[in-house]
Amino acid sequence: MSTVGELNTSNRILMGPGPSDVHPRVLKAMATPLVGHLDPEFVTIMDEIKTMVQATFQTQNHLTFVVSAPGSAGMETCLVNLLEPGDEAVICIHGVFGGRMTDIAERCGATVTKVEAPWGEPIDPQQVKEALAKTKPKLVAIVHAETSTGVLQPLEEISEMVHEAGALLVVDAVTSYCGADLRVDEWGIDAIYSGTQKCLSAPPGLSPVSFSDRALAVLDNRKTKVQSWFLDLSLVKNYWAGAKRAYHHTAPVSAMYALREAYRLVLEEGLENRFARHKRNHELLKKGLESLGFEFLVDEAYRLPMLNAVKVPAGVDEGAIRKRLLEEYNIEVGGGLGKFAGKIWRVGLMGESSTPNHVNVLLSALRDLM
Q1: Which residue ranges form the domains of the chain, and what is each CATH number?
Q2: Fewer CB near the terminus (10 Å): N or C of the chain?
C-alpha cells in the first residue's frame, strides 16, 4: 500500500447550510496541546464552556452542557431522555428535521401526533392548539429554524399553549443559535439542542443542549431506562454537572478548545450585535439575488437571516451553476433537500460566513456565471 499524501484541502468560501467558515483564533485553539479529559485544567474549561452556553441560550438552567457528538445527537438526547414507551408526543413538521424528530420519537415507543405545514411555511399555532385538545402529550417538539426550508418559526404563543396543556416544549435551534434571538428562559423552552458548525462557527461534532427543571423532573420520574447508554442524562450529567466529575466518556478535547474560543468570539461581539449583523447581511444578499432573478421561498416575516432559501430562476441548471461556483470560485452553496431537491438553493450567511465580503463575492461570481 502506498503512503497517503499530506492533507491539503481547498480553501473554500463556505456559504452552504453548514459548516460555516471558522475564525483563525478557533483554528489556533485546536492546536493547543492536549490534556486529559479529567484533568483539573480541562474540568475548568468545561465549566467555562457551560457558563458561555448558558449565556448564549439566555438561560439559567443548571443542566446546560455540550453533547460530545453533532446536532443530531442533541436531538436524540432531548427525545430519548424525555420519552418512554407509551408516551404521547406532538411533533411539528414543516421540513426535513421535524420529520427526523418524529422518527426518533416513534423509535422511543411514543405515539406521535403530527402537526404539519407546507414546506416553506411556519406552523400555525391554531393547529397546535387543536392537537393539544385531542391528546395529552408529554411533550411538543418544534423546529425553530428549519434548515431545509429557511423558515424561522415564532415560538412564544406556541410555548404558552403547550405549558397550559401541561406538556414540555422541545426546540430544535441548530441553525438559529447565535444568529437570531433565542430566549430559552423567557420563552419557556424545556429542552433545546443546537450544533456548533453554523452560526457559532466552530468545527462540527458537538451539540449544546439545555434542560429546564420541569424536564429534569420528567427524567427523574422515568419508569424505564433511557434506550441510549451514551446519551442517558442520568449518567452524563454527573460528568458535566456533578460535584465530583464522574467518568462517562472521553470528551473531544481539541474540539472543546475550539468551541471555547468560538464562544469567546460570540460574547466579545455581543449577542444583539451578532443578530443585527446577520440581519444586515441577509438584506444585502436579498437585494443582490433578487436583481439576478432569484425569488425567496419564504414570506419575509418568517425568513431566516442566516439560511436563505431561494428559488432558482427558470432556465438555470442549478446543479451545474453550483458545481461551477465550487470548482471555479471555491464558493459552496447548498442545494435543496427532499421535495425541494433541484428547485432551490440554500445560501448560508452563518457566523464567520456572514460578512458583506461573502455576499459580494457570491454575487460577483453569479453575475459572471449567469
Answers
A1: 13-18+271-369 (3.90.1150.10), 24-266 (3.40.640.10)
A2: N
pLDDT in tens, 263-297: 999 999 999 999 999 999 999 999 999 999 999 99
118 prior amide bond cis, ω within 30: no
The pTM of the full predicted model, rounded to 2 decimals, is: 0.96
Tell which phi-psi region holds residue 171, choosing left (phi > 0), alpha (psi between -120 and 50) or beta.
Answer: beta
101 pLDDT above the threshold of 80: yes
Residue 172 near residue 151 (C-beta atoms within 8 A) = no
Q: Is the dihedral of CA 25, 31, 36, 40 positive or negative?
A: negative
**Residue 192 near residue 75, CB atoms below 8 Å:** no
Set of cell numbers at residue 43: 474540568
